Amino acid sequence: MEHRLEQLPVATPSGLTLLQTPKQDLWDTVLSQLDDVAQRLNLDPGIHMILRRPERELTVSIPVVMDDGHIEVFTGYRVQHSSARGPCKGGIRYHPEVNLNEVRALAALMTWKCAVVGIPYGGAKGGVECDPSGLSEDELCRLTRRFTAAILPILGPRRDIPAPDVNTNPQVMAWIADTVTMLEGKAVMEIVTGKPIPLGGSLGRKEATGRGVAIVTAELLKRKRRRLADTTVAVQGYGNVGSFAATFLHQMGCKIVAVSDVSGGLYNPAGLDIPGINQHVANHPRHLLEGYQAPGVDYITNDELLVSDVDVLIPAALEHQIRADNAPHIRARMIVEGANGPTTREADDILQDRGIVVVPDILANAGGVVVSYFEWVQDLQYFFWDEAEVNRNLKTIMVRAFAEVWDFCQERKVPLRLGAYMLAVSRVAEAVRARGIFP
Amino acid sequence: MTTETSSNVKLALQTPSSEVAEVAEVALSRALEFCAQKMALGSPEAAADCLRRGDSHACGYFQYGLAREVAGCLGELDEGIRAVYLYDDEATPEDACLGAARKVPLTHLIVWARQKTAALDSLLAGLDRALAEMLGDLVDRSQFSHALDCQVVEDVEVETRTGFGALLSSLHHRPIEVWKRA
User: Fold this and answer.
1) Whole-model pTM?
2) N or C: which end of chain A has fewer CB within 10 A?
């Protein structure tokens, strides 16, 4: 399998296979992406083969005494795809259907994501096959602690640093940090990121992904010689990513004309009152836009928002929102992907043919992992920044990352999505090359 | 909307509102029991108290319990339903845990059915209305216009990964299966 380098997949018009195959093929899809990019970079075949295999995979059994006294045995995974650029970094997910191939694929994506924004990490991911919603908090705690103990031999602040992912949260990270601290007999809070603030979590993490989306959007507008004040924006999804992206772009001077969530959308061509909407959402028991009223505001559907007459569209809801059926009707000339995978492959090709610039998710929504990196940096130096410093450093990194991807794409004449992956893979390859093969 | 032909779907269409209300009441009561059991609270009333106080743990367990019960009822009432999933409505999984806790759950379900029908839409709307009213009585009437956010997907949408059908095989968003036809 690893030697079939002659069987490279045919590149799509937009230049990259997007992740949209059924989940059992996810790892193959990630490999196809890598093969595609490796061919374009004329990557050394030896380095290509190294990157096609995860460095380390650990499967563990996790026996847990349940609340009623019986024992259940769960299965957990930790995959480290690459540590060429630094310690591995990646979340841990709890889900009944998590499997090794999925974890492999996600670990590789973390390698590329960290590389594209230039933070000194490799990529990893972990998972436990369980239904956390059906476990009591005590059961979840025991499961987490036993899983942590089982994978501890390959974890460490300079080895592999987990973080939250699907169905895990700051509480789970706190249990991991405490377990390692107890087992090692010394404080090791820097073993995970995404911790509660009192345990060394970073200020600014909650807003980081949305802030990063806003920073990247502003940089794109600069390249397009557009003034922020003359720019209209639509944001699909008003959760932790979309609401902060809308808020920061509004503060920067953009006119946010449309926002939506699961309860529907709001539209005002004269610009929405984002602080007023945020107040409404904060007071709503389910934090929804539902029920918001203001002069000049019309109600629209999520589908209508996607094709609204704006300069910038920010899909920050779920994946596969921009598809072959609506891509021809999108009027925005710029799309910044706040969500993971909001554009299907077919839609990506259509958008490219239409000359619409798409900032890919791997770059646009990387603000979260950048602030996770800051959390680790602060923990390691036992010195914690104020929120302004976190935000300042986030801006520095996102601005630089966007500029590097933009310049790379201009030079190579490739779309941003393809260019971002090419740049990421080339950075990891360069690190492998520079370090050489041990021994 | 497709034409209903199967007898099971007709049955669902004929489900009277009183029966839907009864189904909703049972689902709500069992969800409270589940929440009480998982939190070792002793009684469903104690779970209801936690919900009224806006306890985020109680909210999570109650939501999951309600999703399982509603899914089971849907499966019994409409044989065209293949499976039901509970999902988290957030752009990235690592950001899902960061927002302010919701005081009252809005249960996001993906209902995978052989085909979309008016009968199923009607059944879902009826259940939503009944549950919203009962939840309002339980917690705070002013807070509820909906209890369920149900997205129905057909076989073709799951196979071609269209719309919410894409989430069932998503790498990033991982809905949890709460009911599946045996």
Assistant:
1) 0.91
2) C
